[in-house]
Amino acid sequence: MNDIKQEAQVTEHENISVYGQKKSISDRLSLYFASIALLSDGYQALIVSSVESCLSRIYGSSVLDSTLTARVSNALLIGDIVGMLGFGLIIDRLGRKFGIVLCTFFVCLGIILATASSGTTPTGLIWMLIIARGITGVGVGGEYPCSSVTAGEAAEESGRSRGFWLIVSGNFVIDCGFVIAAIVPVILLAICGEGGLEVVWRLSIGLGLLLPINVLYFRLKMINSDAYQKEALTQNVPYLLILKHYWPKLLVTGGIWFLYDFVTYSFGIFSDTILALAVPANSLMQTFEWNIVLNVFYPFGALAGAFLIDRIGRKYLMAGGFLIQAVLGIIIGALAKQIVGIFPLFVILYGFFLFFGEIGPGDVTLTFSEQYPTAIRGTCFGLSAALGKAGAAIGTQVFKPILAALAEKTGDPIVAQGYVFIIGSGIALIGAALTILFVPDMSKQKMDTLDEEFRKILSDHGYNVNQLGMIQVEEHKEEIAQDNKLES
Question: What is the fold of 27-477?
């Protein structure tokens, strides 16, 4: 009898050991492939700038007017908002893994349709591109709650520095996607020449398919985090109670993200436009090449923030980034005529304007998932990110009309650009003030303390906390052990 008990204990120990090994591998894969997926998202977000430049050269302003241009730019952002809201709910209710796999499907479908865009008229082709970019956006937007939440939980459970890994696997690789999106059109344009612009824009979008396709297999193998398995709220969700207790936090995280994206997406997506206005005599290739220089500032800013975030703290890193960005914007705006006369200096100052935005708010917004308990982390982070992308969509919608109106009023496009930089700086100053007043520093706090607080809130309002948990960890270990037996 004792032999049977000892054998059972050994078997249980082996099962737990196998589970631990698979969970450790899953945590590492979650970090690595969250990075690759967000690299693809950064690429898709910025490639539209070069695509628009190609389309405007092919069809001219008579077809691709300012209204249609704004819709091409905004299509991904509108899809982002839908994806962030939808997938934030999905990963909380149906699991991290399910949401991540579904995200990949939407991204791949949208890229394929955008690359194959066609129509009986040029306007019809552009409308198909707009719709396809919207579908891509649903998947890209979904990656924010899916990948960031998964990466944060994986870093916490693997004992890694949570802030550092959230940034490295998040904002840093998104910004690397920006750089790749600036380089690829230059290579394609060098190969095809300005006579092959249709090939350039189609391949620029289509090559983005390589990244999400490559992560799909590994995403099918991932395991939901232990925290999610224990704390998942998959039934009878008390949304009114959640909103009652978390609306101030949502207002802060979403509001600051709104302000940051309003500035950074407007100045990032329309960088080609800004550079072309600064030196109208530049060829398309020269504008693309200067855009590479400009976009290199993004990942270096994000990486610097990753090393500083756990040392300085979330609050002061974000506020400092906003303040320095505002100062640089005011300098560029006030001295626009003189600075543009020395074009490399203009690009460098413009780059540092974006650099400090990434060090502070660009990095810290991706750690906002830390402020919510596991059960509602995807939903609340997705809602915050969606508010941010609403700022991006509004910013890109109004950016060109504001620039055009100021250029008409002043009679000088360079002076008009200066005013736009000053407007962006004013928004950054508001962001800094809100950060100092309302953003808590989560650098030292463990995320499971938020789960305990959430359970207490539910219990105090008569909710049965025994409903929490998607699947018991012990049951999951036994399931994996059974799979191993079948495989052997």
Answer: Growth Hormone; Chain: A; (1.20.1250)
Q: Where are the domains of the chain?
A: 27-477
Tokens of 294: 């400009």
pTM over 0.90: no
Cβ(256)–Cβ(271) under 8 Å? Answer: no
Residues in CB range of 413: below 8 A, 6 or more apart: 277, 403, 407
Pair 420, 328: CB distance under 8 Å? no
Closest C-alpha to 48, from 398, 424, 393, 325: 393
Q: List the structure tokens of 250.
A: 């949502």
CB of 435 within 8 A of CB of 319? yes
Taking residue 157's Cβ as centre, other Cβ atoms within 10 Å add up to 18
Q: Tokens at residue 199, please?
A: 């090939």
For residues 375 and 40, the answer to whether their CB atoms sit within 8 Å is no
3-class secondary structure, 62: coil
What pLDDT is attached to residue 26?
Answer: 54
Q: How many CA atoms lie within 13 A of 41 on its CB side?
A: 33
C-alpha 258, offset from chain centre: 13
- In angstroms, rounded to a whole number, what is the distance separating the alpha carbons of residues 429 and 410? 25
Residue 279 has what pLDDT? Answer: 61
User: Are 328 and 349 a contacting pair, CB within 8 Å?
Assistant: yes
Closest CA to 199 of 78, 50, 347: 50
Among 228, 268, 255, CA closest to 90: 228
What whole-number distance in Å separates Cα of residue 37 and Cα of residue 169?
9
Residue type present at position 470? M
Mean pLDDT per 10-residue segment, the chain (488 residues)? 48 45 55 70 85 87 77 86 91 84 91 92 92 93 80 65 79 87 90 90 92 77 74 83 90 92 72 61 74 86 91 91 92 85 82 89 86 88 90 79 82 82 90 91 77 89 79 45 47
Distance CA 264, CA 122 (A): 30
Residues 67 and 64: their CA atoms lie apart, in Å, by 8
